[in-house]
UniProtKB/TrEMBL annotation:
Domain SsuA/THI5-like residue range list: 59-263
Keyword Signal set for record: yes
Leader peptide range in chain numbering: 1-27
Family matches, as InterPro entries: NMT1/THI5, SsuA/THI5
Pfam families: NMT1
Keywords: Signal
Protein name (record): ABC transporter substrate-binding protein
Domain of life: Bacteria
Annotated TM spans: none
Keyword Transcription applies: no
Length: 348
């Protein structure tokens, strides 16, 4: 079935420049993959996979699939490219510079509103790992207790609308967060945003104390996170390729949770700033809070998604004005490539 997916003119103008910038996409990780002859490599389907940040434990399953040859077993020659805040992953994806990227549930629905034909094919994280952090022992142990307190946030944080509505918080509490924990450390009555796997570690090292962790998922903000995104065109024209990439990535995650060492070596090569201690911290937090294997993933397998979960996310954000109620949010995802059951991924 052939379909055309119109892109708005302004988006097309932006995307049309990508051909000129494709040389910026450099393959740094593939050189770390298991060695092979050029003949065997040519028989594999080449895949460019862009992360949303530098190599770290949050991408461990993908690196594991590369390090242990799982991708190759599925007929894939995968290049993993770390990203940065300045990387426009959607532009690179729609411009054909990359084949898959890391995404998130909210941005996927936002893309539908903007007419961008990308689609979510798997959800690695069943829980949102964004958190608010507070100082211990000062009475800021819950979201309800944050009324009137300074809160360091990045601009445009979607979850803020939910927190305001649910807990009676106000915009005058917001302070700009520039990925520097120093203002938070100075003001014991403040809170700051962070990732479960990162900022608590930094605060422990720099501040000498363990912060309270308030998981935004517990506040009702729980979109699918660290999802795998691709184009609708690829899903329709080559579903077998998409299936093999999703299956291999999921199997990589099961392998990583069991024995992370192969992936960790590649992670440190791609990101020399990453230490064993920080990788272990991140992985342990993912396990402790059941970020990857919880809810539907316990029976349907890592990567699981359901229509009900997507609908709940959409309705919650419509209620606080983030999305237009008329948005066809079901265009943001497909269940075609996931939910095969734990045995399928562990034993096949």
């Amino acid at each position: 079935m052939n379909k055309s997916y119109p892109i708005k003119r302004r988006q097309f103008i932006k995307l049309s420049s990508l051909a000129l910038g494709s040389s910026l996409f450099t393959a740094c990780t593939q050189s770390n993959s298991p060695s092979s002859s050029s003949e065997s490599t040519e028989k594999l389907d080449k895949i460019k996979f862009l992360l949303s940040w530098k190599a770290e434990a949050e991408y461990g399953g993908f690196y594991q699939a590369l390090a242990t040859g799982i991708y190759r077993q599925h007929g894939l020659d995968v290049t993993i490219q770390p990203g940065s805040p300045q990387t426009n992953t959607t532009q690179l994806l729609m411009g054909g510079v990359i084949d898959f990227t890391i995404g998130g549930g909210i941005d996927a629905i936002k893309a539908v509103q903007e007419g961008i034909p990308k689609i979510t094919v798997a959800a690695i994280f069943q829980k949102e790992i964004q958190v608010l952090l507070t100082h211990p022992g000062v009475g800021n142990d819950s979201f309800e207790q944050l009324k009137g307190k300074p809160i360091y946030l990045t601009i445009g944080a979607y979850y803020w609308q939910i927190l305001k509505t649910k807990y009676g918080l106000s915009d005058d509490q917001k302070r700009p967060y520039n990925f520097n924990v120093s203002p938070f450390l100075v003001d014991k009555n403040s809170a700051q945003q962070g990732l479960l796997t990162s900022e608590p570690y930094t605060i422990e090292k720099e501040g000498g104390f363990k912060p309270n962790i308030l998981l935004l998922a517990d506040a009702g903000y729980n979109p699918y996170a660290f999802t795998i995104e691709t184009t609708k065109k690829l899903v329709e024209t080559n579903p077998d390729l998409v299936q093999r990439f999703v299956d291999a990535s999921i199997k990589g995650w099961y392998s990583y949770l069991e024995n992370p060492q192969p992936a960790n070596e590649l992670i440190k090569k791609d990101n020399p700033e990453m230490t064993d201690d920080l990788i272990d911290y991140g992985l342990n937090k993912l396990k402790e809070y059941e970020v990857i294997i919880s809810g539907d993933a316990k029976t349907l397998g890592i990567g699981a998604m359901t229509d009900q979960r997507w609908e709940n996310l959409f309705q919650n954000l419509v209620a606080v004005g983030v999305f237009d109620a008329n948005t066809d949010y079901k265009q943001a995802y497909t269940l075609q490539f996931v939910n095969k059951g734990v045995d399928y991924y562990q034993n096949s």
